[in-house]
Design goal:
Blueprint (H helix, E strand, L loop, with lengths): L1 E4 L3 H6 L1 H11 L4 E5 L7 H5 L7 H11 L4 E4 L2 H14 L4 H4 L2 E3 H8 L12 E4 L3 H6 L15 H6 L6 E3 L14 H4 L1 H17 L4 E4 L2 H14 L4 E4 H5 L1 H7 L7 E3 L1
Parallel strand pairs: 1-2, 1-3, 2-9, 3-4, 5-6, 5-7, 7-8
Helix pairs in contact: 11-12
């Protein structure tokens, strides 16, 4: 399988370790390439009400990833943006977008991972991002009577040593919401603090999620208040033992200009 590695712009700039962890996971399932011509998916423009301004970004995405069997990225929000806006704005990209998956989807649905050689001996709370949960249906929502597999939780349960911690309000928004955190900063901060306190009250040492954007928001609040809890992306936990096995050599990554 030839896999195109899609890394969101903010992950590339601020959290490269998440990209590396995603790479280490994907290398188990095929030849992975990182097209260096990729840029932002265009989500910030759409979130700000300037949807058509993201067409250029979608065109770049199409040109960068059209040659791969599948495209995988560690961000449900970016993948959802492409699905909801990309085809409408740039119909030629449909074939590429149709084979683009969030990391959770790829592991659980495409290659059907049912066991992992991973080890993470900590108390971890899973933060369900709104885009992943309500947009991509990675699990069941509390406001709906439905039974969907919680794909991220199922993946985490395969990790040795982990203890999953459940907050009192299991799928509440963290308050990030992209530009919402800028235009409604006071509300956003209150929502984020409520989430963090709920996780801490239930004994979590780490907060994880499939969306680094939510974790970035929570991390800012944690650092400002010097709270005793950490954030970590889902990919980093799932690849935790893999990293130990490969730490003696740098991972091989093919770039495509």
């Amino acid at each position: 399988m030839k896999i195109g590695l899609f890394i969101p712009c903010y992950v590339n700039q601020l959290y490269p370790e998440v990209g590396m962890a995603t790479l280490q996971l994907l290398e188990q399932f095929g030849e992975v390439e990182y097209p260096t011509s990729q840029t932002c998916c265009g989500q910030p423009m759409a979130n700000s009400g300037c949807e058509k301004d993201s067409i250029g970004s979608i065109k770049v995405f199409f040109e960068a990833f059209q040659k791969y069997d599948v495209v995988v990225g560690p961000s449900a929000s970016c993948v959802l943006h492409l699905r909801e806006h990309g085809v409408k704005l740039f119909p030629e990209a449909k074939e590429v977008i149709d084979k683009t998956y969030d990391l959770t989807e790829f592991l659980y649905d495409v290659v059907e991972v049912r066991s992992l050689e991973s080890y993470f001996p900590y108390k971890v709370a899973l933060h369900k991002s709104c885009h992943g949960l309500r947009g991509m249906r990675l699990g069941s929502c509390s406001e709906k009577v439905e039974r969907l597999p919680n794909k991220q939780r199922q993946l985490l349960k395969m990790v040795d040593g982990i203890q999953l911690i459940f907050p009192s309000r299991r799928d509440e928004c963290c308050g990030f919401g992209g530009t919402f955190s800028v235009t409604e900063s006071d509300v956003s901060v209150r929502m984020g603090n409520d989430r963090i306190q709920d996780y801490m009250n239930n004994g979590a040492e780490y907060i994880t999620s499939g969306d680094m954007s939510c974790l970035m928001h929570l991390e800012g609040l944690i650092q400002r208040q010097k709270l005793d809890i950490k954030i970590i992306h889902l990919s980093q936990i799932l690849s935790s033992d893999i990293k130990k096995k490969t730490e003696q050599k740098a991972p091989k990554l093919t770039t495509h200009a």
